[in-house]
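Hi there,

I know you've been waiting on this one. I reran it after we fixed the sequence typo, so this is the corrected version. Both the input and the resulting structure follow.
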Amino acid sequence: MLDSMTFHHIGLAVRSIDLTAAIYVNAGYKQSVTIFDPVQNVNICWLIKENMPTVELLAPVDETSPVCKSLEKNGVSPYHTCYVVNDIEGAVADLRKMKYIVVSKPVEAPAIHNSKVAFLYNKNIGLIELVEEPAEVTF
């Protein structure tokens, strides 16, 4: 099952969506509207450019957001890598067997048209996000 995972996007922890997005827009990326995700307590913005990786900007709404810890420790930086899977429950089970720790169980994500997402951590990889198909971003 895991061999069918495909790259979806890179997530960046940012303090200001507007300031970071402006840099990407100057490089030819198209910017989505900003969407609030109540589960992560973040504002999310998508940046898309043909033949380039999709970028997700995540800005915490307040100190309860898990993104805050990353910003405090690392500043603006990559936060996670996301992969598309056909069966999120099966993929989570497979990754747990490989010593990944479930950070958040599958939940609907408003920024990806309510497709299910889950976050897992491995000390040799870092934080990954899984998104279940269809994985169309909200633009």
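Quick highlight: Strands lie at 6-13, 30-31, 35-37, 42-48, 54-60, 77-85, 101-109, 115-122, 126-132.

Best,
R. S.
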